[in-house]
Here is the input.
Amino acid sequence: MATVEKISIALPREMVVQVRQAVEAGEYGSSSEVIRDALRDWTYKRELQQIGLSGMRALWEEARADRAPGVPADEVLDALDLRYRALAASR
Here is the structure.
């Protein structure tokens, strides 16, 4: 097992109640387990955000390198306007 380091954190009262309720309900063995699980989820979320950002950066670079003529903004906005008007009319 990895070395465990003890730290102190401050949580709002509502969060403390939620942590204690999860432990009392038997969902977790201790408050530390609740916090570790929350940190694992947070880490996973950050990793997904980085993957998303990397993908967006790659698309941006691809678009910048593309020398094909673009579509004028007015045409795009007109097409979107028509699409959203049709959508609104169908409701």
The first helix runs from residue 13 to 24. The chain has a mean pLDDT of 94. DSSP finds three helices and no strands in the chain.
